[in-house]
Amino acid sequence: MSEHIEFMKEALRLAQKAAFFVAPNPMVGAVLVKNKKIIAKGYHKEFGGSHAEVDAINQCSDPAGATLYVNLEPCDHQGKTPPCTDLIIKSGIKEVVIAKKDPKRNGIEKLESAGIKVTTGILEEEAAELNKKFFLTCEKKRPFITLKAAISIDGKIAKKRTEQTWLTGEESSKYAHQLRAEHQGILLGSGTVNSDNPHLGVRHNNGNDPLRIILAGENAIPKDSKIFRDENYLISKGKNLNELMQELYEQNIHSILVEGGARIYNSFIKEKLVDEYIFLIAPKVLGKNSLNFSEFEDELPLEILSMQKLGQDMKVHAKAKWDSNNG
Amino acid sequence: MSEHIEFMKEALRLAQKAAFFVAPNPMVGAVLVKNKKIIAKGYHKEFGGSHAEVDAINQCSDPAGATLYVNLEPCDHQGKTPPCTDLIIKSGIKEVVIAKKDPKRNGIEKLESAGIKVTTGILEEEAAELNKKFFLTCEKKRPFITLKAAISIDGKIAKKRTEQTWLTGEESSKYAHQLRAEHQGILLGSGTVNSDNPHLGVRHNNGNDPLRIILAGENAIPKDSKIFRDENYLISKGKNLNELMQELYEQNIHSILVEGGARIYNSFIKEKLVDEYIFLIAPKVLGKNSLNFSEFEDELPLEILSMQKLGQDMKVHAKAKWDSNNG
After folding, report:
1. Of residues B288, B304, B313, nearest to A283 (C-beta)
2. I want to staple A28 with a disulfide (CB 3.0 to 4.6 A). Which of A52, A63, B303, B322 is the partner?
3. Which residues of A have a CB under 8 Å from any CB of B?
4. Where does residue A132 rank: exposed (0-12), middle (13-18), buried (19+ CB within 10 A)?
5. Cβ contact A283–B303 (<8 Å)
6. What is the pairing mode between strands B95-100 and B67-72?
7. Secondary structure of residue A97 in the 3-state scheme
8. What values do phi and psi take at B44, rounded to 5?
């Protein structure tokens, strides 16, 4: 068992290597083991590319008799690439160890019916956490939604509506770019676009620019706004949020970062369309003549996942607890 | 030098042993060293009791020729106990190493004129931090003021005025009692007394009950309120806050914890009568129909000193930065 854990850890480590490039696919890593030694490693490197299992097997001259460790159930279907199960069976692998089942696949059944021993549930929690966006999307048929808000310690987001306030410091700004790289779409209201004219690109990190999704309000967005700099944007007007999420899901946008402003936060919270929160809290109190983060009426319970100092600011990562009072 | 640091660390460690019992006196520890070995240790154990230097010397049969390490300049005046400098000189100690000078004393001068070698500034920052309340009180002639607020992540302190809201959890409540034990007075408004009927005693910790200071408003406080359970309270009505702080200082109340509610917070912040903040942040958003922490108009810059998870909540310790924008 402890040797299973050791090899699965390596598969999980490999999976993370392509963190910013495989979405909406899950991150998957694989190792092949013979006589308690790793003989090949692989991972899913980019959307549309080889799956991790295939990557590992292809790097191995003699996989027959080996044990395959992979953090997600191998696929049994023809997608952009052929089914992984076929190659696993053909290669003579005798055992497959899986961290977490894939809700969309039946790979295990196929492997077992070919006489391969299958073990599941090794480091399952870590595997669930690694691909939490993927699993939630499978279950809810909508993108994983992260709400990011820079707030003062008294819960304000700006001095006044329409007036831009930089609350947080340099480190928070870098982190905000990393967050963008971890999502396939960034969503904000046209009010924020008009007041801040944000670039919304991924500047400080490697990673693809996410789709810029703008919820348009009454006022037109100037044509020379930075968000129009290339075709990678989507303007949505007067659409129900649940419908919009459905559309994004069907367009393979499986994770979005909601960046505000206050009205947008409110709409998402009202529809319970928030999975996790990132608060970047600035070390100041803005006082009463400021714009509240919370314009909604109900109490909203959260669970703090982590907190850390980020330069002068604090970063708080929390999870929505819709079920406890508001579910 | 490194041996100075080692012995001074021990003096500082000893100083903290009586943390909750010496106020308004500073916390002081002392060690006597001969041939690089500690031959006696002492600390100031309670208000009115022996000073640390005296405590150490009294435990030593032959202090002559020793070096004394003490985190605060020895006193040269007759207070509740005789001047420490006299005993140091009489005992034949040849060197005194001091972390931080005492703004109210001239002990160093007296020691040097008796031919004793004096070194200062060893672990001065740590010594300043340990007795920060004492040093600020010496300088400003008013108590050290800590504002403690339990807030939601959107900066609210309660659902509605007059309605009690328990925001934070068990661990925060224990910590709040510890905080009380670290201050000589607890101050709150009669509104909070009337709505919460708080006990304000130090329940979970050893330590003396602090003075209960109530700022009275329009409404009378019921006679059976818990704050009236013994004589250890002070009701203040219609008095200027600066005057009240002056009075408390003169009554030897040199540290107070301001516990709210919103109007009281506002008054202290308006008068710049806050030195440090403790925010206990609950993992929830209370929404717009709630009472704001910040009812004041100006922006208020802080510096985050530390943050940590406290059960389900977050504890944030911050320092007022009055000088940067609002000084």
Report:
1. B304
2. A52
3. 151-156, 159, 269, 279, 283-290, 292-304, 307-309, 312-314, 316, 318
4. middle
5. yes
6. parallel
7. strand
8. -80, 110
Strand order in the sheet with A276-282: A233-237, A211-216, A185-189, A255-258, A144-152, A276-282, A313-320, A300-310, B284-285
Q: Distance between CA atoms of B153 and A318, rounded to whole angstroms?
A: 10
Q: What are A100's strand-pairing partners?
A: A72
Determine, for residues A297 and B288 on separate chains, whether the beta-carbon distance falls below 8 Å: yes
B326 has pLDDT over 50: no
Q: How far apart are CA A107 and CA B303, in angstroms?
A: 54
The alpha carbon of residue A111 and the mean position of all alpha carbons in its chain are separated, in whole angstroms, by: 29
* ipTM value > 0.95: no
Entry field: residues in chain B:
327
* The length of chain A, given as a count of residues: 327
> Which amino acid is present at B302?
L
Q: How far apart, in whole angstroms, are the C-alpha atoms of residue A108 and residue A114? A: 10
Q: Which of B147, B148, B152, B153 to mutate to test the interface with A (most CBs of A within 10 A)?
A: B153
Residue B169 burial (10 A CB sphere; 0-12, 13-18, 19+): middle
Higher pLDDT, A181 or B274: B274
